[in-house]
User: What shape does this take?
Amino acid sequence: MRVTEISMPPNIALIKYMGKKDEAKNIPSNASLSYALGNLKSTVRLTNLENEIDHDEWDNQSQLSEIEKTRFIHHLNFLRKYFNIQQYFEISSNNNFPAGCGLASSASSFAALTKCAITAFGVKISISEMAALSRQGSGSSCRSFFSPWALWKNETVEAINLPYQNLIHHVIVVSNSKKDISSSEAHRRVQTSLLFPGRDKRAELRLEYLLQSFEDKDWAKSYKILWQEFWDMHALFETAEESFGYLLPDTLFVLNYLRNYWISYQDGPLVTMDAGPNIHVLFREDQFEQVEKIKQFFESKFLVL
Ligand code: PMV
Assistant: This one.
């Protein structure tokens, strides 16, 4: 029995992909920049079923919800059709972190599914082609193919060489319950916000300033840009015609602590958020004492990954 297993990391966007120019192909409204979260991973295992079986089956250990399972099969069918392959599989998908609460599990699981299926099909294609196919299943998954930095614009995603290659990442998990509004729904609804026109320009200008601040090693500037960027995305959510949001009281508690930390020490972690209530922090390697201090503070209240 042939078994193929692939693990891929999630990625956190520092400049966010929010809104689509083309919904069918997952073409983003603006360019985005991400950092791969090397300590976290999704693992997909595909076990070839006998030739006469004409549907996929699920391993009962898989952590996906029914909706996620449907999206997985849909993507697998798309890949089978694209490569003209008839093989069906028993599918297993697991993460070493909580899924569906804004920790980018769809990025890592779709990247893992795409790479695993293409490997199981025995097809040889470039990483860029794989990333482009993965994008059709989940937009942000295309960035998980490039580590640590990925830059995605329109149909092109590529690695980008930036000074910080070994950032220390943690996520302060204030809630791990599944989110009510999926990112697909968020991409649709933000287009109804009066703040949406101009969002592409703001994001791309911030991207330019952020890349410059990394080149200049101006960490405080990078922190400010990231702060403005995640609030921009959450403001789009809150000001959509049918408003929605992910922030919880504890989210604001954590954000206030981190902002006050920066005010007191004139240094601290980069702070960002995904479409969820949890807070991502990224430290430079030389900030290991701050990592311990901040981790210790939050670990008494929340799960810190
Ligand atoms: O890839 P999707 O459709 O799940 O969209 C992800 C969008 C955000 O995670 C909110 C931002 C991003 O750039 O990853």
The radius of gyration is 19 Å.
